[in-house]
Amino acid sequence: MFLNRKARWIVIGLGNPGQEYERTRHNIGAMVVAQLAKRSGKKLTSHKSRANLAEYKLETGDSISVATLRSYMNESGGPTKSLIDFYKSSNDHLIVIHDELDIPFEAIRLKQGGGDNGHNGLKSITKVLGPDYFRLRMGIGRPMGNQDPADFVLKPFSSGERKNLELFIDMGADAVEALIVNGLERAQADFNS
Question: Fewer CB atoms inside 10 Å of the end CB: C or N, the chain?
């Protein structure tokens, strides 16, 4: 797939706003975006699209806007569409980073398109934009026993998981950059574990 270096990439890290959700499993996407902003030396600042945003360029010349949304997960579609419209971008330059229950903790999967698998953030975005955008699925695993998955995703990572969390977040940031620079197929070969 030929990548248009002049088009701006929009990278959305899904999560819920508020300090109580900051380090929960459901906010892994927002954590990866924070890491991307930190790497670039930029700070996420308030944007009129109901997002916190940082803009920068990779060494390859690719322009990127990374964002966390100031809306709850199930309302992600509106702010995402606002960013796409603001930058006159399109789904083929949109990457959404989200938590994924059906992948073990520390595993990553990159793909384009597909269903929402019950994820309310993806459901909201797909309802507004359709399904054909890139996804970085960050594995959080399923809860043990009878714990409700909806409760599980809103809990902080376990102490065992926290030992490797920063490395996992860094790997997610690497995967985003690889997708932008090298295209989906090569990034999948390098990161889909």
Answer: N
pLDDT at 178 over 90: yes
26 is catalytic: yes
State the pLDDT confidence band at 5, using cuts at 50, 70 and 90: low
pLDDT tens digits, residue range 88-98?
999 999 999 99
Domain count, the chain: 1
Candidate list 26, 93, 98, 119, residue with the active-site label: 26
**DSSP SS3 for 138:** strand
Evaluate whether residue 2 is within a structural domain. Answer: no
Please, what is the Cα angle at 20 between 25 and 168, to 5 degrees? 30
Rounded to 5 degrees, what are φ and ψ at 69? -95, 145
Give pLDDT tens digits for 38-76. Answer: 999 999 999 999 999 999 999 889 999 999 999 999 999
Q: What is the residue range of 105's domain?
A: 9-191
Angle at 11 between CA 65 and CA 6, to 5 degrees: 55
Per 3-state DSSP, what percentage of the chain is helix, strand, and coil (rounded to 5)? Answer: 40, 20, 35
Q: Strand runs (DSSP E) across 72-185, as ranges?
A: 94-100, 108-112, 134-139
